[in-house]
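My current task is to audit a protein record that another person submitted. Alongside the sequence sits a line of tokens, each denoting a local backbone shape. Where you disagree with what is written, explain briefly why. This is what I was given:
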Amino acid sequence: MPKVFLKTYGCQMNERDSEQVAQMLVARGYEMTGEAGDADVVLLNTCSVRDMAEQKALGKMGLLGRQQKRRPHTVYGFLGCMAQSRGAALLSEIPHLDLVVGTQKFHRVADHVDAILRRKMAHEPAMDDLRFSVVDTEEEAGSQETIRDHATVPPSAFVSIMQGCNMRCTFCIVPDTRGSERSRRIGSIVGEVRELVGRGCKEVTLLGQIVNLYGRHEFPKVEGRSPFVQLLEAVHEVEGLERLRFTSPHPIGFREDLVDCFGRLPKLAEHVHLPLQSGSDRILKAMHRGYTAEKFRALVARLRANCPDIAITTDIIVGFPGEGDEDYAATRALTDEIGFDNAFVFRYSPRKDTPAATMDAQLSEEVKEERNQDLLSVVNRHAQQKLQAMVGTTTEVLCTGPSRHNDARLTGRTRGNKIVVFEGPDDLAGNLVDVDVTETAGFTLYAANPRTAALAPA
């Protein structure tokens, strides 16, 4: 039975795509392994949003290639966004690379791997293979709905609802790697969720590049409700589903009908990841974000008024071209004022063929790093305060199984998306449990006394 090592870089969409690939390979008789040195197939699913993610993937592929002399039949492949962006150049740059598959061809990976591995095992020359297309909607239909017939369904699962992005933020390469917005129909999505829940899934996360702009060009509003709100309502009605999440949205897609959902849909978890990117209006305009700092501040206020317990996390870029001391100070002040539950803080990195890459006043890496560390200190202070406030409380956790760092303990997430580690019997995995939070360390809560939680109302 051939073994496959599959490593994923980047966002939840990439994780969902890797899940798709893994399940199709297992259905063909392959075995997944966490040890690259024992693998007959090595696949890296790549991200191109930041240079660091690309460099990690390239470095990893270089290291893995050292085993080629020992295992000459091994198939090496890049998948995903960097594969889409760099295409054939990867094959010329990396001698041992066999396969490059872009973002609309995930459902073809098993076919390509079969063919290349068969040639290599027969000691025939394995031709370099390139399979990518920016937009190929007929092909993509096979990659949108996840195939799970031969896989164990996890307690929490990702469901892709759309592909692509039309926003054209000046720092972002996603419209080039994922194409323009294309949305699945509500009935198809609900059917996938219903099938997941029927097999034991308790929580689904709806995925899209800008998820709350779902269907805006394809489907009509109904009684003032956007297509995305209609989708949330339809998924919410799936019997047996306990929790509903979505990621990642854009502030301009948060109209009142969506804000109201957090007060009237009990299954919708009290967490939203709301990318800020900058607290400076001048930089937000240069980024083409379409909102101001004041509009972002007002949106957070509306969300908290509608759902006082909501956890808000964010993305912030420091060191965008032309970001002066006053611009950074505005970002720092707004971050401190809002007090996010957590944040991903990124140093700006130029991406090929994006407008920001050729803007004047590119900042030095030293300035970017200084601002990155300073802003992280603000983010971490608020994150620790919010975690500490949960010590001594009882909270509901969806138990997903053993902890990654200690398989003698269990782990799961709160409705506010906080990680909780606790001791308990293995059969709690896949269940909602109430736990008593006893302490916090790092960004993890620790709890005791797990017991089955009361089911949320339908």
